[in-house]
Every structure is written in structure tokens, then in C-alpha cells.
Design goal:
single chain; alpha/beta; ABC transporter transmembrane region fold; Rossmann fold; 2 domains; six-stranded mixed beta sheet; 20 helices; binds adenosine-5'-diphosphate; binds magnesium ion
Length: about 600
């Protein structure tokens, strides 16, 4: 429950609405508690009228009831209007607090590195951002308001009751500790069960999200039925957990009216005794029944209230778990750097993934000059992608340094760094937007010439012109309407358009045919004469055009030089050239 205090800053921002709402709720309770007083007045007036001998009883009763009746109507109207306004105020706070929280979570997520996303699945994060936030909103707008109503009703109601008869009030308070104990015992279980339900919801949405993302694989492998079975299992667990939670909270809800019944018995028994003893009037006796009805309504709601508080607390805990997760890449405060030239220096660079024993990169030393094109080759798992991720600070090195123009890479603000270093991935993410907007993603204001220019360099012009709607062609979710190679080339165009001093391509030609790849590379060298390009490739035919070729093996550089130099070495690269060369010749022969 303590975690709920962390919501205070979000409420403090709306202090006037908070105090206004609170004052409204309190005064509404006051008007409500006035009503039984007028009931009492009416009944006592009638009793008095009837006691007078010889009078016209009906006329007198009429006259004596007019004032209390009007007063009751006025009280009801005031109470309703004030309640309505204060309810809007409090709901507003709930809405804005969840609005602020949602924004904060969203911008927090933008700063997280790959490790974070390995720990939290997208489905889980979505569940928290939607479901848990709505629990928080309910706690602020619903549970806290109801609790205030409950407290005000109790305070105002009890004050009025004491003024009428302290004896009867005392007798009524008697079951109160019982209510508290019962509520406390239940609240602990409800918190735990609610946590389970929310985790279950996360699991469920992770499942759906992953399934839909991989739907084409699922269908291609004819796994639909298995997926449905697995889903219904997860779904069943979620339903069971929900049922447990409902059962507990319903039990609590059912116990509350029992306690109310005890209070009724007390009034009937002890109250009628007091009336006959002449201690209280008949009107007071009736007023107590009205007060009981007034008090019992919140008490009956108390069960639901405990549930709401506990669910809100566990939702809040789940949100702050995300917000407390510091991004592993820390933003640098330094500013005012000159424009980078694209000079890169790797000094004793090593990296080890948190969950591994051996180093993915081990003592890499390398200097790259502006305008140079460096190709990186190596087997799967040799550390190529790791090296590239370090260059854009998706990861920070375990040992060693990366210098850009003599500045350690950590000194740059992240936004500045990513303005100067652009990474294009093998499996690019395209947005469900037009082709043109995807290419000009970094700046929607770019003019059409720039878009075509980079589309040309990425050998994408023909593809675009083949679409009837050209650059305005809208891509499906994640770009499903494009082939793998077209997607890669679109992503390349998106990277090229920024003309960053350092461009990094991680195997982003894997689905592009050899000829197009060579064509693209020739184009790249032409338009990026003064800028540095580092690219991972599997093909010697591509790498041979690079100014320098580097071969990685087990996280270390084992060969480095130009195409000719590496061929002379007769090492890994020369071997690769032989196999790929004979394959290419074979393909050509088969084709002719
Ligand atoms: P490449 O791109 O050359 O195929 P990577 O840089 O992706 O190689 O991987 C280098 C090594 O680091 C491999 O042994 C791989 O298993 C490991 N590795 C890569 N990514 C992760 C990760 N996210 N967590 C743990 N180990 C990883
Ligand atoms: Mg890789």
C-alpha cells in the first residue's frame, strides 16, 4: 500500500481540484446528514399534534409537515448538485494523473536499451501501460473518492447521532472494530490475488502480441491449432485467477451487509427500549434508522473499496517497477561539440553480455578515417553485430574505448550521437505509413528530390515506380506488403537520406541479390566520398570494393587489409572467396 504514496506528485499537480473536490464531498455529506433531522422534526410534530385534545388533527399535521418537507427537498437538491461537481473534479484528477503517468512511461521506454527489452516483452509493457494505468486511475478517481465519502459520512453522521442520543450511538459503534478486522484480513489476500491477475494479463497480451507478430511463420508451419491450444491454456489460467479474486472480494462484499444487519438489530432492540423509557422521542428513533441507512451504504461498499485499493496498489507497483528501471545507457550532460568528421578509433574494445561467460568482443583495436569504407566479415556469432551496436551506444563497452574525432563516445549526448551515426539493421522495422514517409522518417519536411536521391542510391527507384501510387504507396503493418529485399533497401534509403558522417550497415543486403548489392555499393562510394561507411556483409563480391576488409573470429580481428592483401594471406577471406567464386561461376553456367 505504501507504493500508492508515489502517486502523490501526480495528484499534487492538481491541488485545487483535489481540495475543491474534497470540500464538495464533505459538504454534500453535511446536507445528506441533515435529512434525518427533518424526518425527526416531522414525526415529532405529528406526535405533538395528535397529543393536543380537540384540535383538527389533519390540518395540524399538514401545517407541521410543510417546513420539514421543503427542507428535505432542498437538502437533496444541494447534495446532488455538489456531489456531481465534486465527482467531476476528482475524476479529472484521475484522468490527468494517468495521462501524465502514461506520458512518463512512454518517454521512459524510449530511453531503454536492448537489455531492458530482453527482460520485458512488448505485450507485458503494453499490459502495464494500458491495464495498470487504468487501475491507477480508478484508485484516484474511484477508491479515494469513495473513501473520502465514507469518512465524511461517518464523521458527520456520527456527530449528528451523538447530538441526538449518545447512548444509542455508542451501542451502534460496537460492531465497528469487527468490520475493521475483517477488512484488514481480506485486503492482504486481495492484493496478492490481484497481482497474480495482472501478471496473468501481461502473459496473455505477450502471447497475443508474439503470435500476431509471427503469424506468417505460424501459418507457414501449420501451427495454428497448437497455438490456439497453448493460448486457451494461458487464457484458462487467467480466468481461474480472476475467479479466485472475484470469490474473495465477493465474500468480503457479502460479509459487510451481515455487519449492517447486526447494527439494525441493535437499534430495534436498544432503541425501542430507550423510547419506552422516555429517553428519546419517536422522531429520534426514526432518525436513527435514516442514519443507519446513510452509514450502511458506504459500509456495504467497503468490500469493493478494499479490492479497488489493493488492485490499484499492485498496478502502481507494476508501473513504478518500469519507471525505476534506469536506462543502462546514461545520457551525457556535455554539450557544444563540433560536427563530427567520421573518424573512428577503437581502443582495446571488449564486450561481454551480462548472461555470458566469454567475451563477444575481445580487445579490438582499429582506426577508421573519414571517407573510408570498411567491410566486416566473419562467421555467425563472431561479434559483428555487437561491434556495430557499441558504435551507436545500444551497448556500452565492458573494457576499452570508442573515440569519435578524439572524443570518447560516452561524452556525446545520445541525440547528438545518433544525429551523426546511423545504424541500418538487417531486419528493418518499417511503419504502416507511405513509402515516402518511411524514407523521410527522421524529418517529414524533406523535399521530394532528397527522397528520390536516396532511393536511387539504395537502388529503390524501379521498385517505387512499379507501384501505381509510387512514393504514396502505403505499407502494411511492419511493411508486410514489401519483399525482404525491398524492405532492406527502403531501410537503407531511410538511413542514407540523413547523410551522417558515420553510416553503419549490419548485413542489410542479405535479402538483396548480388548484382544489386554491388550496384548499391558503387553508388554509396560515389555519394559518400567524405563520409565513413562500415558494413557487415557475407559476400566477398561486395567486400572486395571496400577500402579495407576486416575479418572477425570469436570476437577478435584475425585478418585486416585490402582485397588483394587478404587474398595473398590465404586465410579465412581467401577461402571464402574461393567457395563463393566457384558458386557464382556455377550459378552463371547453370543460367546460360
Ligand atoms: P554476429 O553479428 O557476428 O553474428 P553477434 O555480435 O550477434 O555476432 O554475436 C556475438 C556473440 O554474442 C555470439 O556468441 C552471440 O551468441 C552473443 N550474443 C549476441 N547477442 C546477444 C545477447 N543479446 N545476449 C547474449 N549474448 C548475445
Ligand atoms: Mg549479426
Amino acid at each position: 500500500m505504501k507504493v500508492l504514496l508515489r502517486l502523490l506528485p501526480y495528484i499534487r499537480a492538481h491541488a485545487w481540484a483535489f481540495w475543491g473536490g474534497l470540500a464538495g464531498l464533505a459538504s454534500a455529506r453535511f446536507f445528506e446528514a441533515m435529512i434525518p433531522l427533518y424526518v425527526k422534526m416531522g414525526i415529532d410534530n405529528i406526535a405533538e399534534a395528535q397529543a393536543q385534545p380537540g384540535a383538527d388533527a389533519i390540518t395540524m399535521a399538514h401545517d407541521s409537515l410543510t417546513y420539514p418537507a421543503i427542507a428535505i427537498v432542498v437538502c437533496v437538491i444541494c447534495q446532488m448538485l455538489i456531489t456531481m461537481v465534486s465527482r467531476i473534479l476528482v475524476r479529472r484528477i484521475g484522468m490527468y494523473a494517468s495521462f501524465d503517468l502514461r506520458n512518463r512511461i512512454y518517454s521512459h521506454l524510449q530511453k531503454q536499451g536492448p537489455e531492458f527489452f530482453m527482460n520485458y516483452s512488448i505485450g507485458d509493457l503494453m499490459a502495464r501501460a494500458i491495464n495498470d494505468i487504468s487501475l491507477v486511475r480508478q484508485v484516484i478517481a474511484g477508491a479515494s473518492r469513495m473513501t473520502a465519502v465514507l469518512i465524511f459520512t461517518a464523521v458527520v453522521g456520527l456527530t449528528f447521532m451523538v447530538s441526538l442520543s449518545w447512548k444509542l450511538t455508542l451501542a451502534l459503534i460496537f460492531p465497528l472494530p469487527l468490520i475493521t478486522i475483517v477488512a484488514y484480513l481480506f485486503s492482504k489476500r486481495i492484493y496478492a490475488q490481484s497481482h497474480t491477475v495482472q501478471e496473468g494479463f501481461s502473459t496473455l497480451s505477450t502471447f497475443v502480441q508474439e503470435n500476431l507478430n509471427g503469424i506468417r511463420t505460424v501459418q507457414a508451419m501449420a501451427q495454428e491449432q497448437q497455438e490456439v491450444d497453448r493460448f486457451s491454456h494461458v487464457n484458462q489460467e487467467f480466468a481461474d485467477d480472476n475467479l479466485t479474486l472475484f470469490t474473495t472480494s465477493s465474500l468480503l462484499g457479502a460479509l459487510m451487509p451481515v455487519l449492517a444487519a447486526i447494527a439494525t438489530l441493535i437499534i430495534i432492540g436498544y432503541g425501542s427500549f430507550l423510547v419506552s423509557a422516555g429517553d428519546i422521542t419517536l422522531g429520534t428513533f426514526a432518525a436513527f434508522f435514516s442514519y443507519l441507512a446513510l452509514l450502511m451504504w458506504p459500509v456495504r461498499e467497503a468490500g469493493a473499496l478494499v479490492t479497488q485499493w489493493q488492485r490499484g496498489a499492485s498496478g502502481t507497483a507494476r508501473l513504478f517497477e518500469i519507471l525505476d528501471h534506469e536506462p543502462e545507457i546514461q545520457e551525457s550532460a556535455d554539450e557544444a561539440f563540433p560536427k563530427l568528421t567520421g573518424r573512428v578509433s577503437l581502443q582495446g574494445l571488449s564486450y561481454r553480455y551480462g548472461n555470458k561467460d566469454n567475451f563477444a568482443l575481445n580487445d579490438i583495436n582499429l582506426d577508421v578515417y573519414p571517407g573510408e569504407t570498411v567491410a566486416i566479415l566473419g562467421r555467425v556469432g563472431s561479434g559483428k553485430s555487437t561491434l556495430l551496436r557499441l558504435l551507436v551506444r545500444l551497448l556500452d563497452p565492458t573494457h576499452g574505448n570508442i573515440m569519435l574525432d578524439d572524443h570518447p563516445i560516452q561524452n556525446f549526448p545520445l541525440a547528438y550521437l545518433r544525429d551523426h551515426v546511423c545504424l541500418v539493421l538487417q531486419d528493418p522495422f518499417l511503419f504502416a505509413d507511405s513509402l515516402g514517409d518511411n524514407i523521410a522518417y527522421d524529418n517529414p519536411e524533406r523535399d521530394i528530390d532528397q527522397i528520390w536521391h536516396s532511393a536511387d542510391a539504395a537502388a529503390l527507384r524501379e521498385t517505387i515506380e512499379d507501384f501505381p501510387e509510387g512514393l504514396d504507396t502505403v505499407l502494411g503493418e511492419r511493411g508486410v506488403t514489401l519483399s525482404g529485399g525491398q524492405k532492406q533497401r527502403t531501410a537503407l534509403a531511410r538511413g542514407l537520406i540523413r547523410m551522417t558522417p558515420l553510416l553503419i550497415l549490419d548485413d542489410c543486403f542479405s535479402a538483396v541479390d548480388t548484382e544489386t548489392e554491388e550496384h548499391i555499393l558503387a553508388g554509396l562510394k560515389r555519394i559518400r566520398t567524405n563520409q565513413t561507411t562500415m558494413l557487415v556483409s557475407h559476400r566477398v563480391s561486395t567486400a572486395r570494393h571496400a577500402d579495407r576488409i576486416i575479418v572477425l573470429e570469436d570476437g577478435q580481428i584475425i585478418e585486416s587489409g585490402t582485397h588483394q592483401e587478404l587474398i595473398k594471406l590465404s586465410g579465412f577471406y581467401a577461402g571464402l572467396e574461393q567457395t563463393q567464386g566457384s558458386n557464382a561461376r556455377l550459378t552463371k553456367e547453370l543460367a546460360t
